[in-house]
């Protein structure tokens, strides 16, 4: 579960991580403008590729998620019959398949698709540690429950293995041929686990109380510190966020599919969006959102370049010293 | 100054008429290391739990416990949490959170320290205990010894003035255990924290104790410096000797007037001195040893009349690894255990002993090589055949096979319930009731049948697990560290049961860290190293031949009686030479 | 206690299966059912610990707040977004619906042992799924949630349900479905607790199984089907809802039936174990 935090963005403060995903996910779900979705998708795919590698990302999204969502998207016009552009008449139900419903179905499918892509990044970046930390301040008791449960799950799974071996050695294995036996032995294993865990947990709660749990004024310690670096990134993110929120609020991402397709910034079937956003603001909105979506990828590139540079520098330094040593040795040799 | 004082303390469990603690009087001086010892069930743990209010068991108590001159009941929760640290037996159960750093900070969080202070304290502790390498790890990745060290560090982070340890090493392997005790000593020495400890590995801690309390039947029976305890126990001829370090045991059987030896090296010196004063010559020693050896060999011959027994377990060129590209855990292992033999496999941690056991119990399968049980390939057995009536496997943790809510029901559950009919698990024409009676009698579980399995003590739980396994009538018994965390008495009881089983022709295969137990009961011993059995010899020859991997008694007396392996052997030899 | 000699003969007979002559009558039928399996005549596994009808005021308060907040948010979302943006709004609503319970739990400073029990039950729920890896789509989660609700009250049931889904998604990957699942299982546990404390749901095998079936089929299915409709269409129409209910029915049915099986076999041992823990460690003051 706990991966190495491989990319630079996940090494920033958890608050920033969480804020980032919150904003990206909300905006993706909120906006149904195709350009917006496209940018968001590109950002998500690049980031996912950075985290999981290209092959896994593409395989996952193209082979597993896409087909399902395509089906779902194409089914939309079967249920919905709004819209003005009739495409095909279904005789059995007496309804028209409309272009608007079809497009809207695709857009909705795409929203889901992008959201799932973002979540695949989220699962990598927001480790349980960060989650527990973030909520440790707001809901301390529950976050402690969570932290304890996170400790128990691997422990119980391990114990389950021990129990299974023990039961197997008494001739009761869950890989038994009969389904009924499997269920019976599975239930027995669960039963043993329940007793074991409950009885042993009492000592854990003793240990908690013995270390002063329940005293007034409990604090929440964290290993995360809000450094200057986090501060810079936070300001940048907030700035970008402000710009594209303002843009969206004034309609830069306006999109309606019922009864007609109306998109901000496009002329579809002769109609334009009834929004008063200036092209400047619209452009800035898309640019800022784009930067925002690609922020982790850019950070990673920037930091790896810096690292390489600094390595080169130190590398040459060491080379120099070696040469100096050699020269000195040579001189000494000459003297000798 | 006394940090803890106990006056006339009595305690009884709620529905129990007899007192667990009876008129206990104790004074613990600040900055000292105190060991409390006593037979199991003498009330050690109950006493320790009364040193901290939140851990007090339910029940009726009388008398006073003073902490720094104040009544403990009146010391508030905050002060107690901070000042009194308590480490319990099971390393796993005490860990609350999922990360090492969080665990270290847990107590400080409760006390309400701010982030900066906690960071400092945690850093300090991590460096002192050498935890910084695994600071960010999840606790499930740690070994047992590391976990217990973490528990200790988490408590020390709160800067307690009194540290209480209740059998802290009972779940650890010997090396981790002595490391842990070393740390405890270091804390006492460097920081001056007062330590109260109960331990069953007394040889590692008693020599360093400032004061030893011997508890018997709920009352302090003896107290004093360790060497005084040895002398006093000898005067009283008390059974407590059994659990004392071996040098003390041997000393107790002589009439020496010198100070009681505590460690092996002191024991050696004392023994040499003793021989000198007694005027026992070298030849006499030699004779005693020879006589002893002859007796033992004769006994052995008598016990095992047929030397060329047919093998019950046979492993031939067995190889095993967990993953396709991981290193081999078991390498080219060949091994033979004869029918009716008690074979013990010893060796360090992580050398593959447990894996070998899982191969023998067919939980895992080797990728090369052959395992035969009673002459038949293990793969050809059906599950029922193998596990019901042929192979019995005792898991290391007995709790992992407890199913029902009373001991009796749990026993019946093994043989398919109380209904008198033959089932795949139960193929004997004996009434189940009678079978259970017999097994209960064999494993000495009488009087415990209505208890909940989890309310039994460690040794009793082990015997219940053994009873469950035996109800399936195994002819080969595999055991994984059956004496882990047990004190001398429980070990003796298990040893007696195993001897009985052996007499009735059961083959016993055991892996163990407990050298003393192996020396006492096993017929043959194999040393396991790097996935292979390095040597496999008769017990006596094995231990007499080893320099390091041998019993404390042998290390102490090897120059005089090279073939005496256990404390009892040394004592016999001493008698012989007198 | 057998003497040494008796023990020897016993061991010989037992291991060798050598039965002496007088043991010929072992096959004698034993008509009466062994006591171990007998339940009290009314089939109640555990009696009500507290007086009938006493659900803590806190729990009602949480429910009240939830019932107040949710329609308000729904109304607001309709007013502000004119019935669009279903996905976002519904997510917000569902999170808001869970908040009162969390806040109540925080507000009363739970004791170490309560925290422990909830954490252990949640972890068992997650780990329990692994115990049945051999039997596909047969998971004990709902049964554990229901039994926790009955044994420790509606609030604990809700939290255990929520946490199980939260945790298993932490291991298997979060997604927009997480809040819905959390809420659905939370409600199952919550209702079980409330109904039991009100005396409507009795701790009887049959009753529990019926509740288990209905709750999984109606509550879990009832919440998750519209949720998946929402997630894939971003809006709910009657037609799509119906389609999702129909297509989801078989899965829900298997889920419900497996819950029934679990409750049938697990309810008695589990409830007894939980009762023992409660008593042994003083979680309930008599």
CATH architecture of the domain at 110-280 in chain C: Orthogonal Bundle
Order of H and E elements of chain C: HHHHHHHHH
Low-confidence stretches of chain A: none
The 3D shape of chain C can be described as elongated
The helix fraction of chain A, in percent, is over 70%
From the helix content, strand content and strand pairing of chain C, which structural class follows? mainly alpha
Total DSSP helices of chain A: 9
Instruction: Provide the CATH topology of the domain at 110-280 in chain C.
Output: Arp2/3 complex 21 kDa subunit ARPC3
Q: What's the total count of β strands of chain A?
A: 4
**Class derived from helix and strand content of chain A:** mainly alpha
Largest interface between protein chains, with number of residues from each side = A-C, 66 and 62 residues
InterPro entries (chain C): ECF_substrate-spec-like
Keywords (chain C): Membrane, Transmembrane, Transmembrane helix
Protein name (chain C): ECF transporter S component
Pfam family, one (chain C): ECF-ribofla_trS
Task: Describe the protein.
The complex is a heterotrimer of chains A (336), B (578) and C (286). Chain A is mainly α and 336 residues long. Chain A folds into 2 domains: 9-130 and 249-319, no CATH class; 140-210, no CATH class. Chain A has helices at 14-30, 34-52, 54-79, 99-125, 128-138, 140-168, 179-210, 228-249, 279-335, and strands at 86-90, 95-98, 255-256, 262-263. In chain A, strand 3 and strand 4 (262-263) form a beta hairpin. In chain A, helix 2 (34-52) packs parallel to helix 4 (99-125) and helix 8 packs antiparallel against helix 9. The longest helix of chain A has 57 residues, at 279-335. Chain B has 3 domains: 2-244, 3-Layer(aba) Sandwich (Rossmann fold), CATH 3.40.50.300; 310-390 and 474-546, Rossmann fold; 398-472, no CATH class. In chain B, the strands form 4 sheets. Chain B has a 6-stranded mixed sheet. In chain B, 50% of the residues are buried. Chain C has a domain at 110-280: Arp2/3 complex 21 kDa subunit ARPC3 (Orthogonal Bundle), CATH 1.10.1760.20. Chain C is built from 9 helices and no strands. Chain C has helices at residues 4-16, 57-81, 86-107, 112-131, 141-152, 154-172, 178-197, 205-233, 238-280.
